Recover the amino acids of this structure.
């Protein structure tokens, strides 16, 4: 039996060529793609002939993921557990801000990075996601919110290391930015990486003005190595130079993410190292208090957070505490998937 291909894997031009090869008129591609963007099944594509709809059902799938479960926070944050066509589970998180709806999506099933404070990598990497599967995350949740474009911003900060799935991630960005898709501006898309240095340089040459974020979490290499194995393969001094290059090439401000771990990275020496590392850069630091206690690490108290903020202000480091969303629904990466799999035995 021939495996059916997902239509979300096709660009509008590729879809046009596919339909022409089926004996259809070129304009049918735009009609089909419009329905796909609305996350509608073949059976509801009412401006297509019954014959064409039947041919599509026989040869392809639409490519949308199934919503396994949704958990809603008291602050309105919605965490989705999505099931892909092969049965694998991924997470996406919808966050509401004054400027619109931001969707955090996954780029891999599981994660190979092994950061000690993150639940995403507990089972290791299962596989890379395709561009169409990433697109499906966005279209499925956008459709859940009603007709039209409801997602205004996308962050590639869910499960997985985007730059280890480089080709598919770049293709997804091209698809979601396309005029026939949701046409989300690249400046409204952020990509977070643990620091895959060669891929950062490569991304700088793509001509895509994304906001690039580095999961820093310590400016002291020895400390960073304790919590992020990536430091061994891609030392911080080289990664920071790649981030500088990206900022210079794209004109975009660099974002450094800093998870706040009590009794570990909130001291004077940590603030000094951060000031030294970021000197001369157009950048900003997102301070992220640890979501609950993880392993040997403790979430900081309000006083500890405020003390570190004062240290950074004294050193003239541009920094803000990230608004904490979804704490009551385990909003951090990998938590919902891990809990669900433990409960169901998947």
């Amino acid at each position: 039996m021939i495996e059916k291909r997902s239509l979300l894997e096709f660009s509008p031009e590729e879809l046009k060529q596919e339909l022409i090869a089926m004996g259809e008129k070129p304009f049918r591609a735009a009609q089909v793609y419009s329905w796909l963007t609305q996350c509608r099944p073949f059976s509801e594509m009412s401006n297509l002939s019954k014959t064409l709809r039947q041919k599509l059902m026989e040869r392809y799938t639409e490519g949308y993921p199934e919503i396994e479960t949704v958990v809603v926070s008291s602050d309105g944050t919605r965490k989705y557990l999505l099931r892909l066509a092969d049965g694998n589970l991924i997470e996406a998180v919808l966050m509401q801000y004054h400027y619109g709806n931001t969707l955090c999506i996954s780029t891999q099933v599981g994660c190979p990075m092994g950061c000690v404070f993150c639940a995403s990598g507990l089972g290791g990497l299962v596989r890379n996601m395709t561009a169409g599967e990433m697109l499906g995350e966005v279209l499925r949740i956008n459709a859940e919110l009603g007709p039209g474009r409801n997602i205004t911003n996308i962050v590639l900060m869910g499960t997985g290391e985007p730059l280890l799935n480089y080709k598919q991630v770049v293709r997804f960005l091209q698809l979601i930015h396309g005029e026939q898709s949701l046409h989300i501006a690249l400046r409204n898309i952020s990509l977070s990486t643990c620091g895959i240095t060669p891929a950062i340089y490569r991304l700088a040459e793509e001509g895509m003005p994304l906001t690039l974020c580095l999961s820093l979490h310590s400016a002291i290499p020895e400390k960073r190595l304790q919590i992020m194995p990536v430091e061994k393969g891609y030392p911080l001094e080289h990664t920071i130079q790649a981030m500088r290059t990206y900022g210079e090439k794209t004109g975009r401000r660099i974002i450094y993410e800093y998870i706040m771990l009590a009794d570990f990275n909130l001291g004077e020496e940590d603030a000094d190292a951060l000031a030294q590392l970021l000197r001369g850069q157009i950048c900003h630091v997102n301070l992220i208090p640890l979501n609950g206690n993880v392993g040997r690490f403790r979430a900081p108290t309000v006083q500890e957070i405020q003390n570190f903020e004062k240290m950074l202000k004294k050193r003239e480091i541009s920094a803000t505490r990230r608004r904490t969303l979804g704490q009551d629904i385990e909003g951090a990466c990998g938590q919902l998937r891990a809990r669900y799999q433990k409960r169901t035995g998947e």
User: Anything to note?
Assistant: The longest strand covers residues 89-97. Residues 236-250 form the longest helix (15 residues). The domain at 86-344 is CATH 3.20.20.70 (TIM Barrel).
